[in-house]
Amino acid sequence: MFRKRLVATAAAAPMLLFAGAALAETTISDTRTSGVATGSIGTGGAADDIKIASAGKVKPTASGPAVTVNSNHKVVNEGEISTSDVNNSTGIQVNAGVTTTVTNKGVIRLDETYEAKDTDNDGDLDGKFATGAGRYGIRVMPGGTVTGDIINDTGGGITIEGNNSAGISVESNLTGNLINRGSISVTGDNARGVQVLGDVSGNVDLRGAIGALGENATGAAIDGDVGGKLIIQGSIASTGYRYTSRPADKAVRDKLDADDKLQGGPAVRIAGNVGGGILLDRPPVAGVDYDGDGIPNDKDDDDDNDGKKDTEDKDLDNDGIDDSLEGTASIVQNGGAPALLIGSDTQSITINPVGTGADQRGLVIRGSIVANGVYDDVDATGVQIGTTPTSAFTTDIKGGIRVQGSITAASFNGEAKGIYLSQGAIADRIDLEGNLLAAVTATSKSLADESSKGATALLIGKGAVTNSVYNSGIIGAIVNGEKGDAVAIRDQEGNLSFVQNTGKITAVINPTDDADDKDDADNDPSNETVTGKAIAIDVAAAKQGVRVRQYGVNDGDDDLDNTTKDPDADGDGVDDADEPAMVGNIKFSAFNDTFDLENGTYKGDIDFGAGNDVYNVGTTTTGAEAIGAIRNSADGLTVNVNKGKLTITNAEVINGTAVNIGAGASVIFTVDPTTNANTRFNVTSASIADGAKLGLTVTDLISGPQTYTVIKTAPGGLTAGNIDQSLLGNSPYLFVAKATANTSAGEVNIELRRRTSSEMSLTVNQSAALDAVYAALGKDNKVRDAFLGAETREDFLKLYDQMLPDQGEGLFSSLDMLTRTVSRLTATRPDLKQRYGPDSFWIQEVNVQVMRETGVTIGSDTKAFGFVGGYEAMGADGGALGATLAFVNAEEKDDVAQVGEQTNISLLEAGIYWRRSIGKFTINARGAGGYAWLSGDRVFIDPKTNLIERASADWNGFTGVASLSASYEQEIGRFYMRPTVSLDYLYLREGERKEGGKSNAIKLEVDERTSSRLSAMAELAFGATFGRDLWWRPEVRVGYRQHLAGEVGDTVFRFVGGQPVTLVATEPGDGAVVIGLSLKAGTAMSYVALEGEYESADGEDRYNLQLAGRVMF
């Protein structure tokens, strides 16, 4: 027994010896001012591992490495390695041929005391970013192979200031992994955050933050081969700019010096083979089928099949890293270099797939990539595959590219490319599941001087190979300007044969205008001349037929409400949120192309080129909607509208083979009366199913009834059922359209004529103006187009009534009520007793509202407000003579008035009156004259097009007033009753007016107008008097007013250069019931009164409220 134990002990001794050696290391806890090396750090100069503890510092003052790995030992830095103003220095240097692991958890800082200054006093710094050179944080020296991992770990920070310097530089082959989980910052020309010149057998894992600043500075330059994966799951940025935020003020931008706008290199450059693919990753989320077991994500509670439930699993994707420690890849390049560049000028490279299934792509992007030109005339490229358009080498992305994150390229006056495949690039398919955007903003100039550079979201350049594109995300190309093209997808080589869209593809040009744009005198972008093209898909260079397919995919419960179905407006089974869309033109090839628009919407022009092409709109079960021109240069086009709506915007002949319109389909043709042209299919055969709908878009006005042939076939080639005419009812409401099919002649015709006023159910005045309005529409295309866009009577009348002038009936009635109110006040004695002698002064505030109903004329609402003052002297014979002065303002808005539209009158009136009391009788007479200032503002608004046109005018007028009244007051105790009769006359004469404004379709000339009204009223007042020296009197009045003579003047107007039109005025009935209330209070020498009155006439209600006061002295 003893012997066995002895043997076991002896056998274990060598292993214990090796274990002791593995655990041995030299720890630096103090400050060293000279370099150290693993080959001599140990006791007696022996080799050993080095650990720089948190309190330890290695701070050499001479060139060379601070720490050298020159033996098979490890280095861990938890403290500080630093130099200042030392050129050709290295934090940790790994010599070739060693086996080691280098881990930085502390600080490596090789900096300098140099600081840039504002030497020219222009408000920004000047000079270089750095003056020193040759500084490296961790450097693997060339000349052999190093075995082991190089790690800048979590918490580790590398800061380098110096030209031709790097944070981590691997210059020989590395059998192991290169990992960055910390931060790296390098400043200086030709700076490299991470540089790989040799081959790496394992992974290059960049999960931390890397920044490179300086001319030709690159965040990560992977120039050697990578045997494993290249993983980016942190931020990497590069720029040569001193300031990466674009100043909004051009004057500030112009002050920047050349050294403020140096160009950096790519944020990430990959010039070697990558055996495990390139992955720009993000933290995992539950519900993703990481194990690829085919179990639906919502039913698989162990997505990575590691035996842990997703709710308890801290590593959902089973990549060995706690999910909480994982970030999202972010690559940013401010400048003209690509943010991500994959390709080599010296060799052909291959990027193998990242994984299996959907990840069987050489490049998988789940994070974000941003390229921003920042300053004028600087191009921006998000991702570039291949180096130059003349490269002799290939860049093969095996399996293609998958984008689940976002790629954005933005340029000012330069060219923007989201993904660019250059010469020699190979990516068999591109899957776009996230966002891909390219945007260009042109510097504001006249069109001739504006940059023609455009934005292309996906550019497959000449010499590049991509066969298919699948989009389920968003692809966008935007040009803010007028000259550059906005292109979502363009293939210049011609290998692209299939494009599938289940997401959104958009190409948009937004015109701009400001003071620097000298094309016209205004700052209105809507009237700019646009020469750039908005193109969704350009496959004109294709070497074979191309199929474009768009369809909808229900992706689940979009509103997160499991109790209700998602909205599905067209009832085709694809909910609204999941319906795809495409905006922009499509340019097909000279081969046999197909556009399957199975679902969603498409807006743009299609050029099918030559070949036997097919255009399918909708399927038997799903609907689609398309609007745009259709053109082809051959006779082989077949158009099948199965379900949905096709609006053809070009009034041209379309030669083809066949047109087929299903029962659930609508086709809208375009007519251009200016050129007497229309959309017309010349085909061999056509079929129109029972219930199919045909419609019409009219681009201009017609002079008389017209018949347009929209489909023409060979004899016997037309089959037609009953055409549903309902869609023709939604043609411009100005017109009446009817479709007929003549199968023997092989023709489908649409008859078009103007709609009559009786068919429109117009009033007398609306009918009188119809021809004049129709003629005026030809003077302004925007106003004309607004009417051509009105498809219903309601939409039409909203526009039509805005064209007519205000007839002033509400204003006249308000003036009539105001002047009668003043006359009634002059007939009122200043006190309750029959005393005479003291003079008196009185003042009255008046408020009037007149509400008119729409009838022959348009209804309106008028509000008036004013003050009236008077002075009178009373004699002992019972008479009084007085004078009045009044100023009132009234505003009328008709029922169709838009915001800012009204007619105003300001009236200054002076008058005299006489009153005589004989016992209980009182008689009164008044006369007055006034001068009026009138103004009118009309606004034409089309809410569909956001068109706003204004017209305004000022004119003058005068008034004459006469009034006579008599009353008798009978007291019964404290109560009294007072019958009153009165006769009132108002005369108003308005001068002619001519409106000013931009649109000749809106401006009016209105003749002078005279209005008068003579009315009589009989009323009976009941009241009571309370108090003696201080008294108060409530009173109620009822009566009837009868219209005797006079009328509101007719309005005679004409559009500029047009014929006169008379709009007949209407009187508000022959009589009106009057109800009044008042409350007076006073003393022997004064009183105040609050009075209100309501008159109800046929079609017009009048309200009056006033506050009056009188003082005798």
UniProtKB/TrEMBL annotation:
SUPFAM superfamilies reported in the protein's UniProt record: Autotransporter
Cleavable signal peptide: 1-24
Keywords, in A-Z order: Signal
Residue ranges annotated for the Autotransporter domain, each copy included: 834-1113
Domain of life assignment: Bacteria
SMART domains linked to this entry: Autotransporter
Acidic residues: bias regions: 313-325, 513-525
Chain intervals for the UniProt region annotation (Disordered): 287-326, 509-532, 548-576
Keyword Signal included in the entry's annotation: yes
Name of the protein this chain belongs to: Autotransporter domain-containing protein
Organism: Caulobacter mirabilis
